[in-house]
Amino acid sequence: MTVIHEVFAYLRVHDTAAAIVFYAQAFGARERFRLVEPSGRIGHAELQLGPAVLMLSDAFPEFGLVAPPGDRDIGASVHLHVDDCDALVRRATAAGASVLMPPTDQFYGERSARLRDPFGHTWLIGHAIEQVSPEEMQRRYTALFDH
Predict the structure, then answer these.
(1) Separation between Cα atoms, residue 89 and residue 113, nearest integer Å
(2) Residue 28: left (phi > 0), alpha (psi -120 to 50), or beta?
(3) Whole-structure pTM over 0.85, yes or no?
């Protein structure tokens, strides 16, 4: 059996150079490196986000690699588990993110928010507020539908 060693989020955007600046301002990302083709398009960039690596590239529609349109959910998101959800949401919105759901205490024991970055990607930001067992989480989840 093949062993998986790591999982990376890999985002395509319409302007990777601007995205690198945004992710640094919004989330404290640090650029590791980038590969730039002669035309200026960035074919690959890596950012350090705490213990994780975020990979980025410009869109290459000629190869079927497109970036999100930016105005609607694309069915995927990146979740950042942080020390202070509210503070990171303030920082990200100051950098240009849009709040889709403000920081809210959730039934699963997290205070979380949902943002859309200027490049069309959705981010979940959260921090733990209590330890909740899977059974209690299910009980609370079921109760949401019992109204």
Answers:
(1) 7
(2) left
(3) yes
